[in-house]
Backbone:
């Protein structure tokens, strides 16, 4: 199979575990057969591999996620980077031309586009093979997966099939309805739109050229920021006449909110948490290094990270987004391919950061115009380069850098560093990168 | 009036805002007429002053609290320090002999001993004058304040008076009963024992000499650690025949648990907290510098500090103590007379601390045997002394100290310092103090 995973999302609905640099698909809260926690993207990727070890998987995502994807899935996964965010039609057009022009796939090749975050069993991915076969049979240009509804949700679009069989042509699409309408659709045999699209490369390229003027992948990439934001559903799916839907009746959960994600957690408590016996139906994730004590709570989700603390009734947690939009909080924590950084203290004219570099990793060679920095090594061994001068460092060593001085650090073992930033305008944008002098 | 405030308590029932160095009476959560938050001890102290501006107030407490008391009440409040904790009889004996031998009060002087944490209006302190008068009239050796019960509490001892009038002789004392017994006592006119004792200095000195062999205050102080732990109620009150109780019918709350303390908070939210409109009867104190979002909660108290996070149903919060006893958490935060320290990061072989010194304040001149230290100044101006060498410092300066080297820092303005501690056995006990060389 040739699967494209759309990995988007600012992840505000899972605040404070997700933020602008850590989307929800990277949060490690699922326990698989082994004992390690895995993230949504890891779970889905492993499931695809189990069903089809030769599957070609390409992740369509933004630049901001590339480092997290490599960190979680390794260096060999295919990634198609969107230069900026433009909704699903431009994204699918870009990844399709990427597969055609860069990966040299033929126009006859079938692609299955899938969200990165369905919480499903392996049978879901086995069903994707059926979609592939339906596309190959050429009865239709597009085949969707329709999820058998379990309740009249107002969160999903509905697909109205002509027949009630496993595979059917589609009469109509309905945008998110109210509960009464949803009930009505379901009584007519409607299905949820699960965001899965199967098509031949040539079909989507044709649609893309109809709507966008471009020559090839590189050209499309270079003008990506000028494209209109438009969804694939609106631009293509709802206008297509030769379209089929395949009914999926297995377990399917859309883990977009705390309420749904907690249903999928095998362990109710993650982190340093004490819960007394009067708590019921409580899920807690504490990523802070301080203890949490919970008593007498019912139907509550609690999530604490260096970015903030959420305490919410589970049902209410679905309405989190507008509140999180109001929180203008510096990102306090990030997991990168090279390691971890965490903000320890924020003052008007200083910022204290703890950086943990993996063995062999390094920072870019860079400088700042408007801040001085101090590194205090607290564990490990490595080498610093300041204005071209190399120095071996280990726990207890201190290196000071004036504004303008070029610097980097290489970890020979795991290396932990306290970085003190000092200046009036401390900003992540005040960074100039250089090629090391040697 | 001559009032002794007993300021004890490890404060575990108000975890995580109270800890071994910050007892509950020092948490600033009360808004008074002004706009500043004040603590229990500040509130009580100001109330006494309002009722009797010439009142002599002495606080009987442990060494650990002296700095916090001066910090909150200023340098002029009287403090009688207990060398160690020995329950209320030794504490009252010590402070009484302190008033007699050190403050030269006569044996005829009336002393009113009061807990430091009743949440009351000024009329409570006005009533203390009546206690004083009753003692002076010499109808009895001891006069107690009995609180008119509002419900059959199992938390308090009960005083059974002979008559139902304002002042009565006492028939009997009852230890904390069950609710059924409590109901029975109340129907007989019983009062809660509010922990207030009024007596003449000579009376308690006589009782003290009967039970403890000592000559004077200094002698008692020096043998304090050998005394038995015993309560004043048990050692004196319950054995006394010439005893009266005065009924207090005003507002009185014992703010010993989160449940009761939230009832006294004028503002339901303290700190960086967002609460949606579906929350009801929720009290939140967030002392962390990260945002908190609460949704759909009812009857819950949340309290977050650098020591930990409590999320509890209000009623359940009364049962916190055994859980907190299980938490073996380093103290992450302390407010001292010289300023504030906060632990930012804890690793196996390092500890990162942020120290904020008030202008003019300083650390002791000291050294450590088993750790190196680094100071990075992040704001303000001051002077460091390392092995006798003075150096002016300001933001951006770094000072390194090897194990064994003697050091101190003086703040000329408010001074903020990141202290990096490095070593295998970092402990607060690894500290040797010295007199500065100059």
Residues:
């Amino acid at each position: 199979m040739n699967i494209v995973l759309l990995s988007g999302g600012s992840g505000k609905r899972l605040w404070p575990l997700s933020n602008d640099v850590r989307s929800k698909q990277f949060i490690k809260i699922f326990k698989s057969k082994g004992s390690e926690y895995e993230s949504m993207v890891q779970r889905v990727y492993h499931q695809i591999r189990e069903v089809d070890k030769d599957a070609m998987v390409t992740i369509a995502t933004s630049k901001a996620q590339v480092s997290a994807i490599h960190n979680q899935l390794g260096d060999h996964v295919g990634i198609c980077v969107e230069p900026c965010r433009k909704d699903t039609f431009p994204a699918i057009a870009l990844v399709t031309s990427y597969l055609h022009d860069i990966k040299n796939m033929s126009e006859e090749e079938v692609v299955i586009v899938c969200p990165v975050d369905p919480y499903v069993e392996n049978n879901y991915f086995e069903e994707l093979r059926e979609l592939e076969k339906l596309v190959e049979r050429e009865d239709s240009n597009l085949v969707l997966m329709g999820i058998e509804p379990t309740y009249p949700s107002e969160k999903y679009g509905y697909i109205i099939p002509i027949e009630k069989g496993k595979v059917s042509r589609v009469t109509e699409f309905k945008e998110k309805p109210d509960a009464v309408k949803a009930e009505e659709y379901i009584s007519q045999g409607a299905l949820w739109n699960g965001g899965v699209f199967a098509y031949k490369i040539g079909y989507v390229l044709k649609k893309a050229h109809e709507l966008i003027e471009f020559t090839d992948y590189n050209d499309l990439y270079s003008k990506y920021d000028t494209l209109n934001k438009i969804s694939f559903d609106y631009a293509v799916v709802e206008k297509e006449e030769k379209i089929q839907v395949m009914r999926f009746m297995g377990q399917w959960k859309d883990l977009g909110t705390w309420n749904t994600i907690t249903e999928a957690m095998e362990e109710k408590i993650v982190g340093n948490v004490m819960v007394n016996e009067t708590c019921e139906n409580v899920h807690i994730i504490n990523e802070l290094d301080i203890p949490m004590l919970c008593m007498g709570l019912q139907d509550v989700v609690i999530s604490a990270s260096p970015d903030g603390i959420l305490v919410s009734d589970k049902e209410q947690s679905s309405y989190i987004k507008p509140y999180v939009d109001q929180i203008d909080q510096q990102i306090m924590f990030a997991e990168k391919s090279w390691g971890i950084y965490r903000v320890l203290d924020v003052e008007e004219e200083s910022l204290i950061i703890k950086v943990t570099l993996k063995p062999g990793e390094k920072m870019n060679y860079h400088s700042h115009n408007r801040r001085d920095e101090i590194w205090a090594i607290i564990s490990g061994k490595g080498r610093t380069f300041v204005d071209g001068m190399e120095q071996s460092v280990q726990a207890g060593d201190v290196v000071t850098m004036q504004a303008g001085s070029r610097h980097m650090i290489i970890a020979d073992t795991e290396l932990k560093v306290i970085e003190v930033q000092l200046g009036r305008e401390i900003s992540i944008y005040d960074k100039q990168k250089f090629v090391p002098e040697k």
